[in-house]
Amino acid sequence: MTPVTVVTPNPAVDLTYRVDRQRIGRTVRVREVLRRAGGKGLNVARVLHTLGVEVLAVQPLGGGAGAWVAGELAAQGIRTDSVPVEGETRSTVTVVDDVEHPTVLTEPGPVLDAGTWAALCERVRIRCAAGGVLVVSGSLPPGAGAGQVAGLVAAGHEAGARVVVDVSGPGLLAAAAAGADLLTPNAEEAREATGAADLEAAVHRLLGAGARGVVVSRGTAGLLAVDGQGRCEHPAVPGVAGNPTGAGDAATAGIAAAWARQAPPEVALRWAAVLGAAAVLRPSAGEVDPADLPALAARLPGLPAPLQPFSLPVP
Length: 315
Fold this sequence. Notes:
Blueprint: E1 2-7, E2 12-19, E3 30-38, H1 40-50, E4 55-61, H2 63-75, E5 79-84, E6 90-96, E7 103-106, H3 114-127, E8 128-137, H4 146-158, E9 162-166, H5 170-177, E10 182-183, H6 187-194, H7 199-209, E11 213-217, E12 223-227, E13 230-234, H8 247-260, H9 265-280, H10 293-298
Parallel strand pairs: 1-4, 1-8, 2-6, 4-5, 8-9, 9-10
Antiparallel strand pairs: 2-3, 6-7, 11-12, 12-13
């Protein structure tokens, strides 16, 4: 069995266009094109694989684009268990310059029928390790609702895994109601899903709905973690600039890696902060350079330098 299983309900072919300056309504020359197997869950899986954490990526794939995603993951050495679907796996386009916040264009993806959702849940039951970690991350395909998210959470718990969920909208509330062990939204997603006016109220609504813990990414304000034992804040790594598109995915990967290695909560937050910063330095989402980690960790106040945040052995 695999220590971390990652489900991406709505994977994509991710295209990143780097330009000199984004200009709406104008012809813009693309300086650089990066093409990756994407979706938030696959970003998480790629970061975990880079760190040497044993990971299995589970996702629905269809059409020529789906075949390309499967081949790309295989070429990177990431283990997969894909469910075939009718329709074409979607694409996303991220436009990045050195001035504006990235612009992201996302296709909706194919509709998944009941049989496909049942197959995804069954893969989770079979593949998740007792005592391991299940991550459910990313957007949901058209027509998916609370029942599908709750089914994935339940399948992970039936397998004996701890379940981390990073989805948005009603799916986030559904994951909370299903008793997810941890939700990892950003601040905007938490407020939007709950309808709360402020972040503190949003977090407590998610906990009140049934989530066992919540870690919120707040950009340069750092991480907010709240569970039944209390709350704590962890600072962001200062002085980091670049492409923030995949920072939240890398932070989720840091928490999953810490859980898989039985690390304490404070270490999980430290890894999340350092990996989120490392992702900002990279040109596209879903990647980090391990060589960046010690120097980034050394910038955090009160932490020893150099810090080797991934030195714990896998049990």
